Amino acid sequence: MKFFVDTADVDAIRDLHELGLVDGVTTNPSLIGKSGRDFREVVAKICEVTDGPVSAEVIATDEDGMLSQGRSLAGIASNIVVKLPLTLEGLKACRKLTAENIRTNVTLCFSANQALLAAKAGASYISPFIGRLDDIHIEGTELIGDIRTIYDNYGFETEILAASIRNPLHVKACALIGADVVTAPPAVIRSLATHMLTDKGLDAFLADAKKAGIKV
Ligand code: E4P
Predict the structure, then answer these.
(1) Which one of 16, 36, 44, 119 has the fewest CB atoms closer than 10 angstroms to its CB?
(2) Residue 107 pairs with which residues in a beta bridge?
């Protein structure tokens, strides 16, 4: 399973990249807005830090606008993936950008049928939002399972990019189901390495080593 980091914080991406924990990056207009930096500048910077896929989202809502913004974003760097909303206009733009060999990430997916349409439109990635479904008391991870089954039934190559990941349990559930990618905030990715018994055990080993005067 690939790990993408869901942020526009370039320093956080660089740190995780140095740890070898980043296969790609996803951003959205809210995350870039929070960074306070110029949209194109921050996307270009992220593409310098990682050579993995970097999703950058259009803000147009009509097909022509999405096509023009998508082509322009794809010109920023060769690892850009154009993020399009899961609307009928977004699906039309997806089909055309795919035909131009521009990779796409169809986002804001909340149902298996939406994911089916994105695959038929040739999306490189589909982004089902788990956390936002959980927020309205719908089991988000069940959606990932449904999409996995549907894509496997028909051999669709669209990768399932589980998004809106809020905690380590989401990551584990996605890994068990067989999501191709999870995109998570830096803090969630870092938290996967921690366990209180690891910390406790390490403290005890170090104390015993000191007591015994062990030198390595
Ligand atoms: C994915 O591409 C989105 O940027 C993101 O995962 C949304 O997460 P949120 O629901 O926590 O805002």
Answers:
(1) 36
(2) 85
